[in-house]
Design a protein that fits this description.
The complex is a heterodimer of chains A (about 180) and B (about 180). Chain A has about 180 residues and is α/β, with parallel strands linked by helices. Chain A has 6 helices and 6 strands. Chain A has a single domain, classed as Rossmann fold (3-Layer(aba) Sandwich). In chain A, α4 links the parallel β4 and β5. The radius of gyration of chain A is 16 Å and the shape is globular. The two termini of chain A are about 20 Å apart. With about 180 residues, chain B is an alpha/beta fold. In chain B, strands 1, 2, 3, 4, 5 and 6 form a 6-stranded parallel sheet that branches. In chain B, β1, α1 and β2 form a beta-alpha-beta unit. The longest helix of chain B is centred in the last third of the chain and has 21 residues. The N and C termini of chain B lie close together (about 10 Å). The chains are: A alpha/beta (about 180), B alpha/beta (about 180).
Chain lengths: ~180, ~180
Amino acid sequence: MANSLNIVTICGSLRKRSYNASLVRLLPQLAPADMMITAAPGYAGFPHFNQDLAVPDEVMTLADAVRAADGVIIVSPEYGWTIPGALKNALDWVSKTKDQPFKDKPVAIQSASTGPLGASRMQYHLRQTLAAIDALVFVKPEVQIAFAKDKFDEASGELKDAASIALVTQQLADFGKFVRRVRL
Amino acid sequence: MSNVITICGSLRKGSFNRMLANALPGLAPAGMTIKASPSIEMPLYNSDLQAEGFPPAATALSDAIRAADGVIIVSPEYNWTIPGGLKNAIDWVSRMKDQPFANKPICLQSCSMGILGGARMQYHMRQSMVFLNAFVFNTPEVLIAQAQNKFDEKTGELKDEATRNVVKQQLEAFGKFIARVGDKA
C-alpha cells in the first residue's frame, strides 16, 4: 500500500526462545492493512555506552531506522523489575545521536512475562525514559501478557491465546490511528 | 570494621560520579575501607550466552559483591533512569547462584549536572533492588545536583563543603546500617 505506515519493532530480549521475540515475529500478521511492521536493526553488538567513545556504526544504523520509521513498537521482558540493561544501553546510545531519533516519534510498548504482572514494571519505567527522549508514547490498550507460559505454544513458541491475540490486534489498529494523528 | 566496594555507573574518564567514588575513601569513617569494584563492562545479557557460562567479568563482579560487607552504587542518570550498561551488569549478577545482592547492605549516590542530582535513577534502582532482595540504606540521600559547580574538574576533587558533609554523614550512617543489618561474621 502506497500510504502504508512504516513501523519498526525493537525487542528487549536477545535470547532465541524469548516470548517477547516470538510476539515480535507475530506482529506483521496482526497489523492492520495499512501498516508494515519490520524488525529494526539489532543492538546485540553495541558496546557498553561510554561518552568517550565515538558513536559506533551499528548505533547509527539503528538510529537511522528509528528516524525513518513512522512509529516504533518496543516489545520487551522485564529484568529485575525494570528495563533490561541491554535494551536500555541501546536507547542510551541512540539518544545520543544527532537529530535525536525518538524525538516526536510515536512509540507503543508491549511485553510478556511468565509472572502475573506481564512486565508492567518495565513498561512504566520505559515510559519515563521515553518521556526523557521526547517520544510520543501510545497510551491504551496496554499489551502486558502475563503467565506467558500458558499463552504461548511450548513447542512452536507461538502465541496461541485468542484473547491476547485480539488485544494485540486491537492495539496495533489503535496505534495506527495514533501514528496518523500525531506524526509530523 | 567494614569492607565496602563502590560500583560506578559511568565509564567515561571525566565522570563526576567517578570523581565522587574516588573521593569516598577520604570521607569514610574510621574502620570503613572503600575500594572500587571490578569492571562493570560485560557482554549484553542473553540467557543463551548464560547457558554457555557466565562471562568472567560477571563472575568477578559477583565475587566482589559477595565478599563485601556493603556496596555503594555511584551512578549517573541516563534518560531519567538507570544507565543501560550498569543495569546490564546487574542483570548478569542477578542470575548468579547464591545471588550476590541478597541481604546485602546497599547505598546509593549520584551526581548530575541538572537540578535533580540523579534522583530518578535512584528511585528506579531502589525498585530493582527490591527484586534483588538487597537492604537499601534510606537517608541521608546523596544526590549531588549541578555537579559541575561542586567538583574541581581538573583535579577531580569534591570541593563543595556542604556536599562533603552530607557524603560523610551518609557513609557514617551506612557503616552503622551495615553493622545492624549485614551478615554477622
